[in-house]
Amino acid sequence: MTPEDRFDPDDMPTVPIPVRRVVTTFDAASRHERIEDKPLLTRSTRRLAINAFGIWTKISSTIGRRFNWRPSVEPYVGYGTDDYSRLICRTVYAPPRSEPGRLMRGVRAMLMVPAPATHVRIAIDEAPLTTVQIGSSEIYDKVDRARDLNGETIVSDDQGYLDLVAERRLEPGIHTVSYQVAHRRPVVSQLFTIAPRTPIGVISDVDDTIMVTQAPSPLRAAYNLLLLNPKKRGSVPGMGVLFNKIADMFPQAPFFYLSTSPWNVERSIRNFIADQGFPQGPLLLRDLDPRPKTFVPSGVQHKLEFAEQLMGDFPSMRFILIGDDGQKDPTTYATIARRYPGRVLAIGIRQLSPREYSPLGPVAGLTTTQPIPVTDVPVFTGTTGSNLMKTMLPYLAKFR
């Protein structure tokens, strides 16, 4: 019997990590996205899409099992306070010798087959988790609680996702989370534990803020996301230097990276952040599947919900918001500043060139469509990180 075939709870320490059952924006249906609140045509279209996606999932899962594919875990980097941790992972079908988390082109990542209702054994620094909270997603995903009578394993939902809140007092710093399913070796990911009184944090967009994706141009964005070699993705000039100068200025500041990209490409973006020398930090992406609880929310709604979650998780932290004017970040960040007075320290907006908006930009004379937000919070703009540094860093230095 191989090590991965032994799925023995005695292999783990006996001190469990308790988990409280709460509803978070990770798993709660947004009031803007609840299917029952939509017009009849929208409800019908969404239900059709949901049913079609469910059929594809069942067919692909059946095909995978016939090829002797087994459930595997795709681990994502988590974060938390010294009292509780937020963990996210996904169970998918994969060939027996596949390596979870390996770098692949976007088109292959998007075709990963979810492995629903898979039992996962999870540990933080070798201490096991014993229960799970999936919040109100149980209402939509119809998770059978009878399948989870054994508290030593946690059952993924209908699309393979696990959104967990584990109560455990941890020292600030980076911890290790281990995930294991039957017949597989454990896989690990990082957990960023942030000190409760950390005064300043950074929330940054990814697409066209730190990584060149040309999101406003659908064809170019699709090519960059699906077909481009992940190792060849370009960094926005000067942004790496800007981020590292902010990290040097505020050594304890955590960096949270928001993107409207799906979790399928988390590994690709994480490798980009590491390869380009950006400060490490959690990635907050979104589900791809059109379940009623999410149904591919708009980029604005996605970023607003995660920003609100971070505001709640770190009530004494003030945030530096960094984005670009290609995907409504100015409007989104201005909304956050209005909703949370005094919580936003500064806003940095990277301005895209006409060519980045559209291949015909220079010919058609296109300009930016997102005006600078009207807000009481200082807003700094520039086409590169170097431009932003000239005005943004002197202002931030006052809060060192």
Please give a structural write-up.
28% of the residues lie in helices and 22% in strands. By secondary structure, it is α/β, with parallel strands linked by helices. It folds into 2 domains: 3-29 and 63-193, Immunoglobulin-like (Sandwich), CATH 2.60.40.10; 200-399, HAD superfamily/HAD-like (Rossmann fold), CATH 3.40.50. α5 (239-249) runs parallel beside α11 (385-396). Mean pLDDT is 77; it is low at 19-29, 132-150 and 360-368.
Compose a concise summary of this entry.
The protein has helices at 40-66, 106-110, 137-141, 218-226, 239-249, 266-275, 299-313, 329-339, 354-357, 361-364, 385-396, and strands at residues 70-75, 78-80, 84-94, 113-114, 119-124, 127-128, 154-155, 161-167, 173-180, 187-193, 200-205, 255-262, 283-286, 318-324, 344-350, 379-382. The protein is α/β, with parallel strands linked by helices.
CATH superfamily membership of the largest domain, which one? HAD superfamily/HAD-like
Helix fraction, binned, reads: 25-40%
Give the CA-CA distance, first to last residue. 57 Å
The biggest beta sheet, please?
10 strands, mixed
Q: What's the count of strands?
A: 16
According to CATH, the fold-level topology of the largest domain is Rossmann fold
Low-confidence stretches: 19-29, 132-150, 360-368
